Amino acid sequence: MYLKRILVTSVFAASGLFLSACATGPDTPMSSGSYQCGQLNVTTTGVGDGDQLTVEFQGQRLLLTQAVSASGARYVAPEDDKTYFWGKGERALFSVKGQRYPECLQDGALEMPFEATGNEPFWHVRVAHQELVLNRPYDTGGPEKVALETTVVNRHGREFRGELDGQELTLKVARQLCEDTMSGAQFPAQVRLQLNGDVFQGCGGDPERLFRGAEWVIEDLAGAGIIDSSRMTIEFFDGNRLAGHASCNRYGGQYELTAEGVSFDYMFATKMACAPALMNQEDRFLALMSKVKRASIGRNGQLILTTSTGEEITAFQSAENKSSL
Fold it and tell me: Checking DSSP bridges between strand 292-297 and strand 189-195, what pairing results, if any?
C-alpha cells in the first residue's frame, strides 16, 4: 500500500546531544528531575547512593544501573544496553529497546545547537557553546560570531546577551508554540532578537519536538467522528519512521519533513480482516492520510492533519503521555 506524505514545515534539522563513546569511568550520579523528550514527559529519581536511577514515563517505570561514560551520567538497563538514560546537565538522551526519543530537556532548557529565524527582514541565529552565529537583519554579508553570556535561566526559557561592533545584542527564547509568519510552519519556541535597540521577532527550535514522543489518538475523520470503541493512532519515531493502528490493522512507513511540509512514503499495513464497518473506516483513514499536506498543533494541543482538499484528521495525545510545549 502506498500513501503519499504528511506535514510540518521544517527549516532546521534536529541535533542530538553529543556524548563521547570513549568510556573511562562513571561520572557524578544524577539527581531527581523532570524532562520533556519532545512530547514525552519523563521523571527520573536517584536510588540509594546514586548508582541506580528510576525512569518513569507513559505509565512505565524502569530501574537502570549506572555505567561507565566519558561525560555526564549514563544509566543502562540490565542485559539491554539499548535501554538507557544519559544525562548531561539540563539535557539528556533517552532510549528504550533501541527506540530513541528526541533530546530530553529540563524546563526552559534549549536543545543545542539552537537555531531560530525571522522574516521581514530575514535574520538567522545559531547558538552553541556560549557563542552565537548571526545573519543580521538588513545585512547581505556573511554570518558573524558573538560571544554570549546567559543572563536569565528559568522554566519558561533562556536569555542571552552579547556585543557586536559595540552594539548590545540580546536574544530571548520562550518555550511557547510559534508560527512562522510566511510559511505557517510551527516551532516549539518564540524568539526575540534585540540589536542596538531594534527588536525582531522569530521562531526557533526543532519542529519535530512538537510531534515526536507522543501517541496521537484519532478522534475525528474529516468531521464524521469515528466508530465507538475503535482505535486509530499515529506515532512519529526516530529515523523518520511512522506507525500506528488504522482501526483493524497496524500500519507503518516513513515521513519526511521539508520546507514545504511533511509527507508519508513507503507505507504498508497488515492484512487482518475485521467487521465491514471497521474495514471501511480503516480504508477511509488511510486514504485521507495519503492526501495530507500539512500538520499543525491546535489551541487545545491537538494534532491536526490537513489534506490537499481541506479535510482534517484530528488527534489528541493519549492521556498517559500528555505534555505541555
Answer: unpaired
Can you read off the three cell numbers belonging to residue 34?
523532570
What parts of the chain have a pLDDT lower than 50?
1-25, 322-325
C-alpha distances (whole Å) from 124 to each of 70, 110, 317 are 33, 16, 32
Cell of 312: 482534517
Element (H, E) at 286: helix 276-289
Residues 58 and 44: their CA atoms lie apart, in Å, by: 13
Q: Distances from the Cα of 144 to the Cαs of 124, 127, 164, 204, in angstroms?
A: 11, 12, 8, 19
The answer to whether 73 and 20 are in contact (CB under 8 A) is no
Amino acid at residue number 121: P
Given a contact cutoff of 8 angstroms between Cβ atoms, the answer to whether 19 and 93 are in contact is yes
The pLDDT of residue 27: 58
pLDDT of res. 256: 84
Residue 248 amino acid letter = C
Q: Give the three-class secondary structure for 284.
A: helix
Could you give the CA distance from residue 250 to residue 267 in angstroms, rounded to a whole number? 11
CB 249, CB 282: distance < 8 Å: yes
**Contact present, 44 and 62 (Cβ < 8 Å):** no
Q: Cell for 92?
A: 539528556
Determine the pLDDT at residue 50.
84
Among all chains, which residue has been given the C-alpha cell 512507513? 253
Q: Nearest 10 degrees: CA dihedral of 36, 42, 45, 51?
A: -90
